[in-house]
Amino acid sequence: MRIIATVICFFAMSSAALAVGVDEGRLADPAQEARAQGLMKQLRCLVCQNESIVDSNAALAKDLRMIVRERITLGESDEQVLDFMTSRYGDWVLLKPPFEGATIVLWFSPLILLLIGFYVIYHNLKRQKIVATAEPLSADEQTRLKKLLADGDDR
Amino acid sequence: MNKFIPFAIFCAISSALYVGLSLNPSNIPSELINDPVPEFALSEVGSDIASFSSETIATEEDVIIMNFFASWCAPCYVEHPFLMELKNRGYKIYGVAYKDRARNITRFLEEQGNPYDHVGADENGRVGIEFGVYGMPETYIIKNGIIKYKHIGPILEMQFEDEFIPILESARR
Lengths: 155, 173
Hints:
The complex is a heterodimer.
Chain A: H1 2-18, H2 30-42, H3 59-73, H4 78-89, H5 104-132, H6 139-154
Chain B: H1 4-22, E1 41-44, E2 50-53, H2 54-58, E3 64-69, H3 74-88, E4 92-98, H4 102-112, E5 118-122, H5 126-130, E6 138-143, E7 146-152, H6 157-172
Parallel strand pairs in B: 3-4, 4-5
Antiparallel strand pairs in B: 1-2, 1-5, 3-6, 6-7
């Protein structure tokens, strides 16, 4: 029973990874089609916004898939195909934002937040250490402490 | 003093998120603003006669409005009265019928009125893709063959006088 559930889960989770743009106009050359599929996975569907054009059923996504194939048949490089898309739809069409001036904050903010977190932890640990290494009691305080503890025993 | 640093970070992050939340995710800025119109040539709906192209647009002296529409697009019906109003005010409007049949376009224009100087048929949607169109309707303001503005979605009543007309007039100058 558990095995069946595991298998079902496995297929449910892997379906997105295995998704291919199923179109009538797939390229005859498997290598070219694989390249096209790779590019399609990097391109955002503009209608559904959080899907790649491979995963989307939107008519526009289908058109864009066909354009990717056409460009590849014309012998364009991956970069040229992506340039064609970004020159019309902007960097937004790329699911992975490019590394450049405007997006540098986007790329580094997780790292900066992580460093801030480390600093806070370090800062707090240091403060605890100071508390732990408080000055030892003076002789007077020692005798008073002993007396107080002894009093406690009496009760 | 140190107490205020986390508070300041909190304020910075929450104001950034507030701004982020108030943006409209379906308004994707156009890449083509202040660029020449992409190359295209359309034939008039229901015929092989040349309608308009990137070349004929570039020769227009006055500002022109290029409107992508379709008879199957519900928001286009909402927008249509404002296109009629623009025509009445003397603006030149070029229509691109996006992925639509000639018969349906003709009926749409007979029923709703025809604000367009030309209606080109973009049957396979390729001209739309050249312009970066991703939804219906979309409207471009073009002067001397340069795209000045892109309006995504229907031109609504509340936008018409306060947004669209001023942008149109400033593009005219």
